[in-house]
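Quarterly update, task 2.4: zinc ion-bound model.
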Amino acid sequence: MIVLGIETSCDETAAAVIDGEGHVLSQTILSQIAEHVPYGGIVPEIAARAHLAHLDKLIAKAMHDAKVGYGDLDAVAATAGPGLIGGVLVGLMTAKAIAAVHDIPLIAVNHLEGHALTARFTDNVAFPYLLLLVSGGHCQLLVVEGVGRYRRLGTTVDDAAGEAFDKVAKMLGLGYPGGPAIERAALKGDGARFAFPRPLKGKAGCDFSFSGLKTAVRLAAEARPPGALLEKDVNDLAASFQAALVDSIADRVTRACAMFRGIHPDGGTLVVSGGVAANTALRAALTQTASRSGLTLVAPPIALCTDNAVMIAWVGIERLKLGFTDTLDVKARPRWPLDPTAAKATGAGVKA
Ligand code: KG4
Ligand code: ZN
């Protein structure tokens, strides 16, 4: 079984070819960071145009490197949402064209399912497992029951974790993307200097909130006289912010572990995935949190936690094995929750 995967939902244009045993035959990825840096964040229109400019060549290179022809493909899988709709349309329409011309099945992939199933590709994790999905657009705790079967336990009531990293980095003049910049600054800083709030810590349930923490960092930065924010201050603010965010996430995950064990007493794995799962401090805290709760943490390699096309191709393989394919009239979706039955979280600016 050979599947071509395409990812264009955010600021990475990527294509990969993998086989049914999970071997990566090829992968290409082009980050648009340089194109967005002047604006301090992702500009959807620029992202869509960049995907359009580069995707064809990236797919051709992936096919060439994999040494396969289109006739060898068993399916083409592309992200069909959620994400920036212009970019999603570029990838999905390209996949539809390949499927139509070469008469192969199309698989419309939920980008979040890509992050969710990566641990099965890397570590062969069995269903069910508990998933912490932490990325630029999402922060959720889910029970992964099977392919296409998710039960959401908690979500953010305001910002996603990656969004909080990006906004705080911008505030501190650390640039974009914010997560890696905060992590680097935090390594040099004192995480105990500022006693920032741990949002929702100790509260029932396992929802998240980060906007109050973000405001606390802004107020602390503004308390310094204008122009007097020294490099040491920035490093200490970054370290104290990261410590508070990690602490808050660890508290929410502890509660989710207990809920998960209530539903699946035999389940033994906590998986973390999404761009923020690249954060070393978060990984270390989650290793402890999981083991205290009697679970084992599985964190895929960083390159497979941030956006990539291997995870999309892998969802293609998992779905194809179950006979889940899509018709050519499938629509691109800006919003696409993994658990459509989940009750709306209460709070401002709730994400799907
Ligand atoms: O999963 P991803 O690549 O794209 C989305 O689907 O959102 O996640 C990107 C997010 C960005 O907000 C970025 O700042 C964050 O992941 N991120 C990190 C780190 N590396 C990337 N956050 C904290 N620490 C990192 N090392
Ligand atoms: Zn992502």
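Highlight for this quarter: Residues 111, 115, 135, 274-275, 307 surround zinc ion (ligand 2) (CB under 6 Å).
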